[in-house]
Write a structure and sequence with these properties.
The complex is a heterodimer of chains A (134) and B (243).
Chain A lengths: L1 H26 E2 L4 H22 L9 H8 L5 H39 L1 H11 L6
Chain B lengths: L1 H9 L9 H4 L60 H4 L3 H9 L6 H4 L18 H6 L13 H4 L7 E2 L2 H4 L32 H10 L1 H17 L18
Chain lengths: 134, 243
Amino acid sequence: MAEKFDNLEEHLEKFVENIRQLGIIVSDFQPSSQTGLNQKLNFMISGLQDIEKCRQQLHDINVPLEVFEYIDQGRNPQLYTKECLERALAKNEQVKGKIDTLTKFKSLLISELGKVFPEEMAKYKAIHGEDPPS
Amino acid sequence: MTEIFSTLFGQNDAQPSAGPAGLGFAAGKPPPPMPSNQAPVAAQIPGQLGDEGPTLRKPGAMNEPFYLLRELPVGNELTGNTNLITHYNLEHAFNKFCGKKVKEKLSNFLPELPGMIDCPGVQDGSSLRSLIEKPPVCGNSFSPLTGALLTGFRLHTGPLPEQYRLMHIQPPKKKSKQKRNPRPLDPLPPETPSDSDPKKKKKKRDDDPDRKKKKKDKKKKKNRHSPDHPGLTGSQPNSNSLR
């Protein structure tokens, strides 16, 4: 899987480098540069052909749209990954806290109900069985 | 007391009750109102019938004196009780992204990319969002430019107009401070921890007797050759300057 990304990355780097050189030629154009310019233009087209060939290998790759917001703002997209992981951890801890609290509440409630309604709780436990260990 | 008990278990129902008739309640007592923000039960009770509400045990059969007592939902092995980052083997990724400081700018992620990439894409119309909202025309094949087509790319000689010159200007790259290589000086004794202080180093250089002698010799030579030199006995105003 990493190979197809490496392949695409290589083609993109070559393409960008070609465009950069094209920009340098154009920034101060001389008549002798015409041949080089034509060559760079055709390299650009062949570069686009190569990138399009890479598309077929990557049709199953999904990119979250939120990453585009980061890129459009000129921010590092790794910050998105970082924030996702941090949010996941925070939510995980939050839910774990809720589970722990509700488990304690359940055991406390059952014990208190057992004191007030011993017969009914015995019947309840007979129907539902003993509580699984939390 | 029994009414409070049944009300308590009645509130455990995640799905709203359809109505008294559908649920088989005894006449005269409507079911308690259900809050609308309750999440649905993870495991569906078998035999559920559309909008009529959950299937209930026959009242007065197995679960007496309990009404509306359902089976407990099937427990999910994976809950928030588990550390999901460990479960999905994301510890390495977590340490990589959250352990170290991730740099803010896009140019730190793509250092080789030319141009001003840290500016917002909206400013120059190069945003990815605009690419999604207005996708370009696709489907045409790429064919190389022929001679006739290349005639359209004959440019005027000379530099670009000023309005287009900024496009290939790159932000100044911060060069990492390279450590200065030590100059080839006289062979110094190996440094001890106390010698690492630059002031002490400078002192050592000054205290070196050989250096003192050399300095004196240089001063004497200079004084001899200077035009204002009164003689060997005269003292010069520059005699104290360090060479």
